[in-house]
Every structure is written in C-alpha cells, then in structure tokens.
Write a structure and sequence with these properties.
heterodimer; A: about 325 residues; mainly alpha; MetI-like fold; 2 domains; about 75% helix; globular; B: about 30% helix; about 20% strand
Chain lengths: ~325, ~525
C-alpha cells in the first residue's frame, strides 16, 4: 500500500511543476502590461512604473522570475493580493470553507439523486421512464450554469418566494465565525434558526452546482449497472431464486459502485469550475467568486496563486480518491 | 430598594425592547467587495462607498446631489490674495468613533489633518508604505505632491496649507475620498501594536457610521455614530449586502432582501420600473464619451474637416442603439450636472449634406482614416465597437472611408496617447471631484499632450482660459472662464463629444431622502426608512 501511495505521489510531482509553469505563464502571456493594467484612468507616472516593475520582479530575466516564484511558494509564500494587500494564502483559506460547504452539499444532492436514478434507469432499461431519466440527465449535463442559476432564482425566489435570492445566511444573523462553515458556526453560536436559514440559503446554489455531477453520476451508474446486470454471477444469483432486491442491492450494485466512485472523485475538478459560476450568481463568498473578482480587479498575484492552490487541492482530493479506491478494490494496487 | 431595582430593570428592558423594535435598518445591495477600508490608497467607487462615505469625513464636503463644495470638518477657510495659502479653521468638538478596537481620548485636531496628508506624501512617514505594494494613486493622480509646499499646524484647530502655485481646484480635491481625515491617535495605537494592516481593515473616522464588521466578500455592517458632528443619522444600522451580479441584485431588491441597489443592468430597468413597490431614480453621470481627432495630422488639422466629420455622425441614432435609453447627447465636454456648464452652446446637428459642403470648402476628398474602438465596455461608452460601425457607415455616406482599429485595453490607451497617432480615437472620462478643471485641463490642456490629450490639441485661447480659471478662486470668475473655454472647444472641435451616460438607482419606496450623487458615490447619511 505504501508503495502504491509513493508511486502516486511520484506521479504528482511533474503535474505540480506543470501547474506552476502554467499559472506563472498565465500573467505573462496575457496581452498588455500587467502594471499598466493595474493603473486607473489617471494612468501611471514613469517613475512609479519603474518602482512597481522592480517591486514585482518584472525587470528580472524570465527564468529568474520563475525560480523566485517557485522558491517563494516552497516557503509557503503565495504573495500578497494587489487589491486587498493581504496575504493570498490567508484570503484563500478564509473563503475556502464556504466553497467546501457548497461543494459538499452539491455532491450530496448529486449522489443521493444520481445513483438511485441511474439504478432505476438500468433496471427499467428501454422503458419510457429510462428515456425520460436519461433525457433529463443529458439536459442537466448541457445546462449553462449561469442561465440555470438565474432561472431558479427568478422562479423559486422571485416568483414563489420559497428560497432566499442569494448569500449564505439571512442578514439578521450575526455571530462569530469559528470554523467558517456556516452550518457548524450557527450551531456553535447556539442559534438553530440561523442554522435553518443557512440550509435555506444552500438549497438553490447546491442544486445549480450539483446538476452536472448529478447527470454524470446518473449516466455512469446506469451504464455500470447495465454491465454488471449482464454478468454471469448476477444470472446465477437470479437462478438461485434470490429476491430482485437482493440481486440488485447486494450483487449488482456493490460491483457497479467501483466505477461510480471513480466518477464521483473526478467530479471534484468539475465542481471547482462550476463553483466559479455558481458562487458569482449567488453572491456566495467562496474562492470561486474570489477568483472572478480577482480577475476583474486585475489582481494577478491572487489569480496566479489561486489557480495553483485550487489545482493542488483538486490533486490532493484525487489522490485521496485513488487511495480509497485501492482500499476498496485491491486489484488496483497489484496492477 | 428591591422594588426600585425591579422597576429599573423593567424600564431598561422596555427601553431595550423598544429600541430593538424601532431600530431602523437599511440594506444596500452593493456591486463589489471593497479592497479594504482605507480610502487613501484605494481607487474604486465601491471602496469609497464602504469607507470614505460611511466611516470618514473630510475638511470640505460635496453638497448632496451636486458638485459644489461646502464646509465639512473645516467650518471655514481663507485663501490668501496670491492664492498660495489656505487657512482652515477646524470645527471644535468633533469626535472620532469608539469601537471595540479603539477608544479615542481626544477630539479631532490639526495633528489628524496633517497626518492624513503626510502619510500619503512624505516617504519617511511610517504609514507611507504600511501595506505591501501600497501606492497613493489619487494623491499622485491629482498632482498633490506637485502643488503642496507644506501643511502646518497653526494651533490645535487651525491648519495652514501652502501651495507651490495657485490652484483653485484644490478645494474640490480636498472633498475627494483620498482626502478623508484619519485619526492620528488611532494610527499611533496601530503602530505601537505592530499590526499595521489593522489600519486598513478596522477603520476609525469621524463620519456618519461606525464600522462594525466585515465578512469577506459577503456583508459589511455599520451602525449610526451617535456623536457624528452633523448630528446622528436617521437610520440605526446600515448593511452592505455584496451582490456582484446585477440581475441578482434586482431580484434581491424585488424580494425585499435589500432596500436599495447600485448599477442595475439595462435589461432589468423596465421590470424594476414596473414594480409598484420600487422607485427608480436616474441622473446623468459625471462622465463623457468622446471621439478625439488628432488635430496635428492632415486632414484633421483642418477645423472644417473636423466639423464635417462630426456633422456627418447621426448622434441620436448611436445613442439610441448603443446606450439603450441610458445616454444623453453631449454637446459639451462637461455634463450638465457640473457647475459652469454652458447651456447656450447649440447641440451638434446631423447634416450629411452640410458635411459634404464643408469638405469641399476644405478642399479635401477621398479621406481614409483610422477609427479607433475601445475593446472594453465603459459607463461612458458601453460598446465602442458598435459605435465605430455606426460612425463608419455615417462617414461612408459623405465619402470618408474609416478603418476600424482596436487593441488590448492598456495597449490601446498607450497607442492612443502618442502625439503622432493618426485617426479618430474613441475614449472617455469619469470625473473625480466635480471641478471643471478635472475635465478641461486633464483632457485638453497643452501639457496633457502625450498623456491624456488624445487630440494633441493645444489652443492658445483655450489654454489661457483654463489656466486662468485655475488661478482665481472666485466661482463667478471661474464660471465665466469655463463658459468661454466651452465656446472655443465647440468652435475648434478637437473632439466629437458623444454622450454622457445615465446612472440609475432603484430602491424600495420605503427609502426616504436618498439623493443621487453626480460623482457616482453612494451616500446614506441623509436617508431614512419609513416605518
């Protein structure tokens, strides 16, 4: 097992190097001068321009800039935001819990609805129900997040008034943030009504963010189930006279779960991409919205380090999924 | 004794309950998170709304809804005969806010005023570089280091500011956000604690609201400052609900999750206007979108050609198509909300035949020129590409061939300001301080050639008028000079003034007393909320 993990870690190193190069190249490949881009309508005086060029190291040869950048990162220095002047790492981890809370909820919705939908579709293969479920899944997969989010807001919040429009919690609740997770903090503050408000605020953004993973999981579950249902051991189980529930639940589903778990793991990267749009629509104070704000403020340091941090987190999660997968399925380790 | 205590407790309880029941709260759906709460180094309107216009005040203030300057922390000021010395009498008894991180021990005095400017000016001031990568963009941008000779304390309540040359717009500069007065005593406390960033993240000022809390990217909370020098404001709690997307802001306003919102999307305006619970206020913004002709390169060095080009453009059609009801035909460089606006100037007329005649008179034909289109949307010009296409078609009708040119935004501006740049260049400006000098001198003075005078236009009479207007402090005299400057501008046509964009402010009908500000700032110190 240790060898397996070490092997996986060794594979990650070149990826990390690739990401540092990509995030570093990002601001240098964009058209326009980053310092001029930061200046407002008054422009910037030549003396000041020179000072900033030296300060941000743009006067150094490109390879030296890169090694300085990597050197700083290795020391845990991800730079200081050009806009807020706070360390990027602090900003990132202040906002990160909000994204995690939203992503977990979105994943919960995707798994709880996607897996049963997939199983059901597989069992009723070819029926009109199967057609409808797969049709809806395909629609969900193709849905532009921005449009979908606005549509839900206009209907459920605007027209029906069932859910709040945006934000993480109703404005009247104001308590200390201990963990950054609103659901936990509201309970720690002993405010059950705040907890309810936080749940209500999670509903629409989680649905929006969870829609694409839900569709992917439902389709993956269906095809995995179909494959397994055709296996000999399932036929044997049926022939033994086991009840359909036992055949599907015990024999088919457990084996079909392996590719589904991989799919769920792979959705993490997708969730991060979706979070950027979802958080922007719902004014959700997480890292997705923060990235968009940083781009619009031309805060290159935040964008550069934010990209790297998100990539590192996605890789870490994927590594954990790989390890878990190896735990569930020993064949993977041997291979 | 016991009875008295019970009665007292009951009274206190009732008082608390009553205050709770009647606490007036205003929720403002703002468009972006502030960088931080120090208005000195920040530059965004959303930064200023959250800091300078809530927590801080200045020596002078702009009147509500206008650009005229009135006394603020300075109750009066005198300008010396030569225009070089400004003596400010500070208002006595002005309190700084008490928060859970700072308790002031003294009232505002001259030390605070001097510190507020020196921290942006003197490199040896410990706050000059108190945040990493700090720059004082407005202090520099308004040329304060060039104009300021010294700021001295005469006594606790008198400050003397000496200039290097007469500069009448200085008073308007002092009403700008960067000139907000901070507490020297608080700065000393922060310096002693070693945690300098607190100065930007936990603000203390003399303004109408006390800062309470900021939840990053989500909510900013303020409460009314009871000892505000102009009297406690009508609302008790002010909350900024940061909502980036304009369509979502509109939905929040309609759902009652906020009471007032900034910058609605043009597409949502009709819906908001139709809502019986809402009011939508509107006003021309303090901005101008224009088309700069390079007056040094043939054939545009000929005023008749410039006039003909403007005459051939169907401005109302462009404003209709591009600004979608949120634009106003600009006949002058400055918008009508600004003092000294010359309303006697006739609007440009659309006259292709007249334009052809003018070109004949000028003796030029077969004109081909570059027509520049900004790659970005700006309030003063939401779609420069579309404007360029419409102008191209209009010019084609009088035999002028225009090649549309664009570039990445920073490169666009860099290339545009080169004195030898050929062609007609779309650009615009948003006013900083409501002073006409901020438009005329910044955009069309001779010294701005190569910087922000995209027409490379240097006209002796115009230059004399705007420079003289800088030297005199009498508003009537200044108005007369700017009125004349606008006449020269129109006669010489160094640029085609296209439009001033309109700004809209939708709010719930229960919001009382809100005034729109031509400077684009959002102020809540005069707002009340109906029960």
């Amino acid at each position: 097992m240790l060898r397996f993990i070490l092997h996986k870690l060794a594979l990650i190193v070149p990826t990390i190097i690739g990401i540092t190069i990509a995030s570093f190249a990002f601001i240098r490949l964009l058209p326009g001068d980053p310092i001029l881009a930061m200046a407002g309508q008054h422009g910037i005086k030549p003396e000041r321009y020179e000072v900033l060029r030296v300060q941000y190291g743009f006067d150094l040869p490109i390879w030296e800039q890169y090694f300085r950048y990597v050197g700083n990162i290795l020391q845990g220095d991800f730079g200081v935001s050009l806009s807020t002047k706070r360390p990027v790492l602090t900003e990132f981890f202040t906002l990160f819990p909000a994204t995690v809370e939203l992503a977990l909820f979105a994943m919960l919705i995707a798994v709880l609805l996607g897996i049963p939908a997939g199983i059901f579709s597989a069992i009723k293969r070819g029926s009109w129900l199967d057609q409808i479920i797969m049709g809806v899944a395909l629609t969900g997969y193709s849905m532009p997040i921005f449009w979908w989010g606005l549509l839900l807001i206009i209907f459920f919040s605007g027209y029906l008034g069932w859910t709040p429009v945006s934000g993480r919690i109703a404005l009247q609740f104001f308590f200390d943030r201990v963990t950054g997770f609103m659901l936990i903090d509201s309970l720690l503050a002993g405010k059950p009504d705040a907890f309810v408000s936080a749940i209500r605020h999670l509903i629409l953004p989680s649905i929006v963010l969870g829609t694409i993973p839900l569709a992917v999981i439902a389709r993956q579950t269906r095809s995995a189930m179909l494959e397994v249902l055709g296996e000999d051991y399932v036929r044997t189980a049926k022939a033994k006279g086991l009840s359909p529930n036992r055949v599907i639940g015990l024999h088919a589903f457990r084996n079909a779960l392996i590719p589904v778990v991989t799919t769920i793991g792979l959705q993490i990267g997708l969730l991060m991409a979706g979070a950027i749009l979802t958080e922007t629509i719902f004014s959700w104070p997480g890292i997705g919205k923060w990235m968009i704000d940083s781009i619009s403020k031309r805060d290159y340091v935040s964008v550069q380090s934010g990209l790297l941090l998100i990539a590192l987190i996605v890789m870490a999660v994927n590594l954990i999924v790989d390890v878990l997968y190896a735990v569930i399925n020993p064949r993977v380790r041997v291979q | 004794m016991k009875l008295t205590r019970t009665l007292l407790t009951a009274t206190a309880l009732v008082a608390v309950m009553a205050s709770g029941a009647y606490a007036k709260q205003l929720v403002y759906c703002s468009e972006a998170s502030p960088a931080h709460f120090d208005p000195g180094p920040t530059t965004g309107g959303n930064d200023f709304d959250a800091s300078s216009r809530t927590v801080y005040s200045r020596l002078v203030e702009f009147e509500h809804g206008g650009t005229a300057v009135k006394p603020g922390l300075a109750e009066s000021w005198e300008v010396s005969e030569d225009g070089l010395t400004y003596t400010f009498k500070l208002r006595p008894g002005v309190k700084f806010q008490t928060t859970d991180y700072f308790t002031p021990t003294r009232d505002l005095n001259a030390d605070d005023v001097i510190f507020s400017f020196e921290r942006q000016w003197k490199e040896d001031n410990p706050f000059y570089t108190y945040l990493e990568g700090l720059s004082w963009d407005y202090f520099q941008g308004m040329d304060m280091p060039k104009f300021l000779a010294s700021i001295e304390k005469v006594d606790d309540l008198t400050v003397k500011m000496t200039l290097t040359e007469p500069n009448a717009p200085m008073i308007a500069n002092l009403g700008m956000d960067f000139a907000s007065i901070v507490s020297k005593e608080y700065a000393d406390q922060v310096l002693a604690s070693g945690n300098l960033a607190d100065f930007a993240n936990k603000p203390v000022g003399t303004g109408p609201f006390t800062f309470v809390d900021y939840q990053t990217d989500a909510v900013i909370r303020y409460k009314a400052f009871p000892d505000y020098y102009a009297g406690k404001v009508a609302i008790d709690d002010l909350i900024f609900a940061i909502t980036t997307d304009p369509a979502v802001r509109a939905q929040k306003l309609k759902a009652g999750e906020c009471d007032i919102m900034s910058y609605p999307a043009p597409a949502d305006l009709a819906d908001l206007q139709a809502d019986p619970n809402l009011t939508v206020m509107e006003q021309e913004g303090l901005n101008i979108g224009y088309l700069s002709y390079n007056t040094t390169i043939a054939p545009m060095d000929n005023v008749k050609v410039r006039k003909a080009l403007t005459m051939a453009i169907n401005k109302p059609a462009i404003i209709e198509a591009v600004y979608q009801g949120a634009g106003q035909d600009a006949k002058n460089l400055i918008p009508p909300t600004m003092w000294s606006y010359n309303d006697a100037i006739p609007a440009d007329t659309y006259d292709p035949e007249g334009a052809k005649k003018l070109l004949e008179e000028a003796g030029v034909s077969n004109i081909t020129l570059d027509l520049w289109a900004m790659p970005v949307s700006r309030p003063y010009n939401p779609n420069a590409q579309r404007v360029a296409e419409l102008i191209q078609a209009d010019w084609a009708a009088i035999g002028v061939t225009a090649n549309i040119v664009t570039d990445e935004w920073t490169t666009y501006r860099e290339r545009g300001k080169q004195p030898d740049r050929p062609g007609a260049f779309q650009i615009g400006w948003t006013g900083d301080n409501g002073d006409p000098d901020n438009f005329f001198a910044t955009l069309f003075s001779c010294s701005a050639i190569g910087v922000s005078n995209y027409s490379s236009w240097c006209n002796e009479d115009f230059e004399k008028a705007i420079q003289d207007a800088k030297k005199v402090s009498d508003p009537a005299e200044r108005t007369a000079l700017y009125t004349k400057a606008q006449e020269i501008f129109k006669a010489e046509e160094p640029a085609m003034t296209l439009a001033h964009s309109k700004v809209f402010m939708p709010m719930n009908k229960k919001v009382i007393g809100y005034t729109m500000d031509p400077l684009g700032i959002h102020r809540f110190d005069n707002v009340d909320v109906a029960e």
